[in-house]
Specification:
This protein has 125 residues and is mostly beta strands. It has a single domain (5-124), classed as Alpha-D-Glucose-1,6-Bisphosphate, Chain A, domain 4 (2-Layer Sandwich), CATH 3.30.530.20. It has helices at 24-32, 34-40, and strands at residues 5-9, 13-20, 48-54, 61-67, 73-84, 88-96, 103-111, 118-124. Strands 1-2-8-7-6-5-4-3 form an 8-stranded antiparallel β-sheet, with helices on one face. Strand 4 and strand 5 (73-84) form a beta hairpin. Helix 1 (24-32) packs across helix 2.
Amino acid sequence: MSKLTLKTEGDTHVVVTRRFAASPEAVYRAHTDPKLLQKWLLGPEGWTMPVCISEAKPGGKIRYEWTNGKGGGFHLTGEYVELEPYSRIVHVERMFLPDRARQPCGDAIRCGRHGHADDYAHDAA
């Protein structure tokens, strides 16, 4: 896995780029398949994601819930806006943190199509 790079685009977008030694299909599945999301989209040691809803289709719902197993946790909800299999995922997220206001953000994920070390970009609005 390569070094992570961050770039801002105006006041509302952050582009996060990383190159993976994986196919665009594998990267796409890792961001849409609930079983795979529950394996890697975690926090510090001991955190789990007992609820993972990912309806990977335009208008499909997203709900992720994390817990530390000690009564602490948070969740996010959202929906998919656009999906181009193995190429691009656009979704909106609303993060719900304990004792904090909602933190909405939108995401667009682009998976490259260039061989075995494909581009991966994550644009947060």
